[in-house]
Write a structure and sequence with these properties.
Blueprint: H1 2-22, E1 24-26, H2 28-31, H3 33-61, H4 74-77, H5 81-96, H6 101-129, H7 131-139, H8 160-170, H9 172-188, E2 196-198
Parallel strand pairs: 1-2
Length: 199
């Protein structure tokens, strides 16, 4: 239930953000083209990192979400790596808009909403896994990864059908960058009007 609400709210937020981007352009593009290009390149780097990170998480969590407590791979360095990589991807998409306004909106939205999701999931997992999850809570950071804690097994059983489904979810940041590029092209061709200039 919590996951369905989370996905729905994330999609609504993304849709509203796309509407804002649809009718706006970057002020940096005219005032400081070099800054505009740097934002875009940094955005692409973060999107690539986020997509790879989400694939890494999906490899471990796919098909095991609540049945089994996953504490290896990305889940050994922090308890919510999917959300961490999602935030990186959101910031990356925001920077790919060549503004600072869009990533700032994304960080604010994420900060207001995701702590509640994390808390709700934490309570649920505590009920299911009890003492094992309590130990995990005490040893693993909640959000920001600690690379020195990394534990990766030499072998890991993956459920291919479920992992394949997760691949598309991991790449939606890349698709959003493509949408941004199409919008920018539409602005240049004056197909879509521009009402706002964002910093």
């Amino acid at each position: 239930m919590v996951e369905r609400v989370r996905i729905l709210l994330t999609r609504i937020f993304a849709f509203l953000l796309i509407v804002i981007i649809l009718f706006s352009t970057s002020i940096w593009e005219f005032r400081a083209p070099l800054m505009s290009s740097l934002f875009f390149l940094l955005g692409i780097f973060l999107v690539a990192l986020a997509s790879l990170g989400r694939l890494w998480c999906s490899l471990y969590i796919g098909g095991y979400k609540t049945d089994k407590l996953i504490t290896q791979g990305p889940y050994s360095v922090c308890r919510n790596p999917l959300y961490f990589f999602s935030l990186l991807g959101g910031i990356g998409v925001g920077l790919a808009s060549e503004t600072l306004t869009v990533p700032a909106i994304i960080v604010c939205g994420f900060s207001l909403y995701y702590p509640f999701v994390v808390l709700s999931e934490q309570k649920h997992l505590l009920k299911i896994h009890g003492k094992e999850y309590e130990t995990y809570l005490g040893t693993t950071p909640a959000f920001f990864p600690k690379p020195s804690l990394l534990i990766e097994p030499s072998e890991y059983t993956v459920k291919p059908r479920i992992f394949k489904k997760h691949i598309f979810g991991a790449l939606w940041f890349v698709w959003l960058v493509g949408v941004l590029e199409l919008i920018e092209e539409a602005h240049e061709l004056q197909i879509i009007p521009v009402f706002l200039r964002l910093y």
